[in-house]
From TrEMBL:
<comment type="function">
    <text>Required for the transposition of the insertion element.</text>
</comment>
<protein>
    <recommendedName>
        <fullName>Mutator family transposase</fullName>
    </recommendedName>
</protein>
<keyword id="KW-0238">DNA-binding</keyword>
<keyword id="KW-0814">Transposable element</keyword>
<dbReference type="GO" id="GO:0006313">
    <property type="term" value="P:DNA transposition"/>
</dbReference>
<keyword id="KW-0815">Transposition</keyword>
<comment type="similarity">
    <text>Belongs to the transposase mutator family.</text>
</comment>
<dbReference type="GO" id="GO:0003677">
    <property type="term" value="F:DNA binding"/>
</dbReference>
<keyword id="KW-0233">DNA recombination</keyword>
<dbReference type="Pfam" id="PF00872">
    <property type="entry name" value="Transposase_mut"/>
</dbReference>
<dbReference type="InterPro" id="IPR001207">
    <property type="entry name" value="Transposase_mutator"/>
</dbReference>
<dbReference type="GO" id="GO:0004803">
    <property type="term" value="F:transposase activity"/>
</dbReference>
């Protein structure tokens, strides 16, 4: 039979008629891709060495527009022919994998992702397939957590966020975050860790890991009042420690009767005069003693405000230039990061294991490092940080 020959106008009319039908675009894509691969094989065999020839087809499924495509991959007898379009299909698969992980990292459940991928690509991905996709990227997230560090960071924030995680049963577990300020005053998440219980040995492991990855010097650690953390830091680094003033205030006010809270808050603000450029540690400690004497009959635990060694950890910010005190007297910066973690995790009632939490937190941290934290937070360099 003679080959049917159509002019450009006739071909355009046939294409228009086909694409106007329901799912016509996908059917046209199938025909075009199958024809291109068949033509590519013919050209390959013409240029190939003698003895090779066509050897049928194998069926695969590609991604179309709201539906899947049925494609026929041409084969040759020697098994050496690989259509160029296979690379395009591999790119499609890689892109779909990345999309699934991005959606998962933004807080969507596996069921949500199943629905989205089927609607967009016409490709049904099961919960187990999506789980395998997200798990396949956990190695990249592990590499992020294990990456080499700079030798020096002026400021390092340490804090914890709690996530419901399943081991033998579901319980809230702490995930500890290390957020560093670089010499150019940009920021970077440099550590994400999990431990079922907080202890001196756990903090020792974190410090050893930071040093193993290259960290040698930090000028200031900013932390909450985490168990045994201050003594462990002092063991590993010659650095000042600032404990979060806001956490201390909240802790005191939470243990104060409702009728006393307004006055107590005013007294605590008088102790920590954050807007007083001329304030000193000695003056702060004296004001704290006065507050203790005023309230300790009602609240005996406030007697600790008279302990200069203990309270000095909350007054370290006064050793630094006034211009940066508002960024070091509290762990607010890292708490903003914790809020980003919560937004990602809030849809899920609990996480299936520790690794899934670490993977998601790592992805959020990478996004923050490449966007929010790449902008300097201050013009001050190291020489301007200290009095």
């Amino acid at each position: 039979m003679d080959t049917l020959k159509l002019n450009h106008t006739q071909i355009q009319a046939a294409v228009d008629q086909l694409t106007s039908q329901q799912d016509g675009v996908n059917r046209l894509l199938e025909m075009a891709m199958n024809s291109l691969m068949k033509a590519e094989r013919s050209a390959y065999l013409e240029a190939a060495t003698k003895g090779n020839k066509a050897n049928g087809y194998r069926s695969v499924t590609g991604y179309g527009i709201g539906d899947s495509l049925s494609l026929q991959i041409p084969r040759d007898r020697l098994g050496s022919f690989k259509p160029t379009l296979l690379n395009v299909m591999k790119d499609q698969t890689d892109s779909l994998n990345e999309l699934c992980f991005e959606l998962y990292a933004k807080g969507l459940t596996t069921r949500d992702i199943e629905s989205i991928t089927e609607t967009i690509y016409g490709q049904h991905l099961s919960k187990s397939q999506i789980s395998r996709i997200t798990s396949s990227l956990s190695e990249a997230m592990q590499a992020f957590r294990d990456r080499p560090l700079n030798e020096y960071y002026p400021i390092l924030y340490l804090d914890a966020t709690f996530v419901k995680t399943k081991r033998e049963r579901v319980s809230s577990e702490a995930y500890y975050i290390a957020l560093a300020v670089l010499p150019d005053m940009t920021r970077e998440v440099i550590g994400i860790y999990n431990a079922p219980t907080e202890s001196a040995s756990f903090w020792d492991e974190i410090c050893q890991d930071l040093k193993r990855r290259g960290l040698r010097q930090v000028d200031l650690f900013v932390t909450d009042n985490l168990t045994e953390l201050d003594s462990t830091i002092e063991k590993h680094f010659n650095a000042a420690i600032q404990k979060c003033v806001l956490h201390l205030k909240r802790s005191i006010l939470n243990k104060t009767k409702k009728q006393h809270r307004l006055e107590m808050a005013s007294d605590l603000n008088a102790v920590f005069q954050l807007d007083n450029r001329e304030d000193t540690k000695e003056a702060l400690l004296k004001r704290a003693q006065d507050v203790s004497l005023k309230w300790r009959n009602y609240y005996p635990h406030l007697k600790r405000l008279e302990d200069g060694d203990w309270l000095s950890y909350y007054a370290t910010y006064l050793d630094f230039e006034y211009e940066i005190r508002n960024m070091i007297y509290t762990t607010n910066w890292i708490e903003r990061l914790n809020k980003a973690f919560k937004r990602t995790l809030k849809i899920r009632n609990s996480m299936p294991n520790v690794e899934s939490v670490l993977t998601l937190l790592s992805k959020v941290a990478i996004d923050m490092n490449s966007s929010t934290y790449r902008h300097p937070v201050s013009r001050f360099q190291k020489s301007h940080l200290f009095k």
